[in-house]
Predict the structure.
Amino acid sequence: MKPSYADQPNGYLSTIQKGLSRLRGFRSGLSYGKGTREENMARLKQAIRTADALVVGAGAGLSTAAGLTYSGERFDRYFFDFKARFGIRDMYSGGFYPFPDDETRWAWWARHIYFNRYMDPPRPVYRDLLQLIRDRDFFVITTNVDHQFQRAGFPKDRLFYTQGDYGLFQTRDGRNGKTYDNEAWVQRAMAAQGFVRDEAGVFQVPADRRITMTLPKELIPISPDDGSAVTMNLRSDDTFVEDQGWHRASAAYAAFVETCAKKRVLYLEIGVGANTPIIVKYPFWALTLENSKATYACLNFEEAVCPVLIEDRSVCLDGDCAEVIRQLLS
């Protein structure tokens, strides 16, 4: 039976509702912001230095900027065999592919998890972001599921992963409300496919490229509680498990946002696209509108915009998030 968390604040739902309640007012128009790029960089540096608190909202664009790309050379390096056999062109679409059996499907997911969850990204943008804000009072909400904030050293109690975690399994129906750590299983499944560790202990494709696309039946993951089938703890429908850790983080986020209501606060949105605007973007717009001391900043590639209603208290910076954060550090 799922545990009840009705007595805890739900920052996920409450901020979504706040954003949606204000959405009609934002339809008056969007703006690319005011001022030159140099002026906006200076404004953002000043806002970070002088803010009483920072709320950071991160989307997939931040991990892309870190080099965790789902297509191109990186995909071809680790999934060349799946591409040749099944015609899969990128990691995202591969997650929905109807593989012929569980042995193949879980071989795919072992790689997908390992190369996006248990490896450091090629570029240090997450560590740079931590260096930029580590001395400030901050909280992070993210739709990313790759756990790169914690890998970079962000404190766990200042993070809210809303959409799940590649590092967790759950039962298919989600009824028991539990999640299960999968790191040990991923390590065994990578070795079983023929990947070899380099001198740093990181799994790589062997020189002869001889790896397999299937796992032995005994490596198909199951629930340690009852032996039932498991799936990824990723939000896709109402079976998604919001476990104890999820609710703890949601309540902490709600409490932090509440303390910011009348403070000089910076809502810093990074790499949030059009797929999930209701979780970060719309709530950040609404929270900025309600607090005259608040500043909204948007770092994005070709999607750095703000509502006209808060244009005077917004900073929009178009470009590579990694480069923008590096420049803010300089």
